[in-house]
Amino acid sequence: MKHALEFFSKGGPVMYPLLLCSIIALAVVIEKLITLRRKKVIVPEVVGVLNNIKEPGDMGLALSICEKHKGPFANIIRLGLENYGLPREELKESLNDQGRQEVHQLEKGLVFLETIGAIAPLLGLLGTVTGILRVFNVISVMGVGQATALAGGISEALITTIAGLFIGIPSVFMYNYFANKAEGLVLEIEKYSVVLLNKVTSFNSREK
Question: The whole model's pTM is what?
Answer without folding.
Answer: 0.81
